[in-house]
Specification:
It holds the Pfam family FAA_hydrolase. The protein is an alpha+beta fold. The protein has two domains: 63 residues, no CATH class; 205 residues, Fumarylacetoacetate hydrolase, domain 2, CATH 3.90.850. Helix content is 14%, strand content 33%. Strands 1, 2, 3, 4, 5, 6, 7, 8, 11, 12, 14 and 17 form a twelve-stranded mixed sheet that branches. The protein has a five-stranded mixed sheet with strand order 9-19-18-15-16, with no helix packed on it. The chain has a two-stranded antiparallel ribbon with strand order 10-13. The longest helix has 10 residues. It is globular and about 55 Å long.
Length: 280
Amino acid sequence: MRLANVEGRLAVLRDDRAIDVATASNGRFGPDPQEIYPVWDDFLAWADIASLPAGEPLDAGALGPVVPRPRQIFAVGLNYVDHTIESGFIQPAEPMIFTKFASCLTGPRGDVVVPSDTVDFEVELVAVIGRTARSVDAADGWDFVAGLTIGQDISDRGLQMRGDPPQFSLGKSHPGFGPVGPCLTTLDQVGDRDNLSLTSAINGEVVQRGHTRDMVFPVLVLVSYLSAVCTLFPGDLIFTGTPPGVGMGRTPPRYLVPGDVLETEIGGLGEMRHTLIAPA
């Protein structure tokens, strides 16, 4: 099943059509995409037996972030060895965790303002939590994931690396710096969830290419690690890290500039497209 935020309303996607969940369920589930995660198991049981209508033609430009207001957003740094090397760091022995603030979230299409000359790109697999998780065994980590989506951890490197020690989160949280989408894909529709291809392209040129099999700490380990400290709530997001090829790691560095078109794709999950623009 694929779920989307269509103009602020939760929809099931089928081919190129969107089925409004509130309407199809006769109000059993409301229209707010955020509110489906606390009742995730009930929703899955209904969707499994529901006779859904054909729906309406999908306008990709109407899609918003499938999780618009998560309680928590976790992000993982240096989770691919080659990215760690290109960034000039030593591979951490444990997951390196920071956050992106929820005000940075945006949908899979549209414009993103470039606030500086050091704005970088990072394609990432994003896991969406579907059940409350606390002290989860790593072997059970996938049981707490509702589904997967695509993310871009857009980063203002100048702000991210400012200070001693640097504080990552603000530099990754400008408005629009957290695109997610185009939809949430449930795990039964993902295929090999541990071997998905990831790419970023700028103006049609592929600049990042990787596979989730190369994660140092895979999703089930991240769920276990995080839940040992924090309670994970339904609808929380985990940005799982980026493969190599980011602008900061290039010689000379390659950063995003107004007019660039950033395309982000993960095999089986879809693609996103954003245009970078100058501040007003």
